[in-house]
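Morning run. Coffee first, then this:
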Amino acid sequence: MAATIQEQVVQAFEIVKDEQIAAPIDIVFEAILEQMGPMNSTPEKPMPMKLEAWPGGRWYRDLGDSTGHFWGFVQAIKPPSLLEICGPLFMSTPAVSNIQYRLKEENGLTHVRFVHRAMGWIGEGDSGVDVGWTYLMVRIRTASETKRDGR
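And here it is:
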């Protein structure tokens, strides 16, 4: 049996986003869970996910008929101040990610610090991940401020 051996380079990246959202911390945390879960979408189409919001809970895309895509496990959760998930996320390569949302409320604003760190064999198609996280943060902000206003 023939084998092909190629040397690969392990890569890493870190994305950090600091956001101020004009809504109470409870509302922002709820919006994070919704926007990462059943309200998840891409700019092109809805992409609902399941997020089991407890330690060890799964974050995955359920396509029905026992098909889907596992994204990660809830590593830590302390509502409404922390959500941490580890797993491959969207990468279909030998890679692992850790994402963290840390929230703090001050003077009627919720400060959200988002960090995504990944390492492994990161494919070329995974290089635009910052655009996706920016889109998600906009949806979290919009949902939070809409709920704050009771709309």
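The mean pLDDT is 94. Good start to the day.
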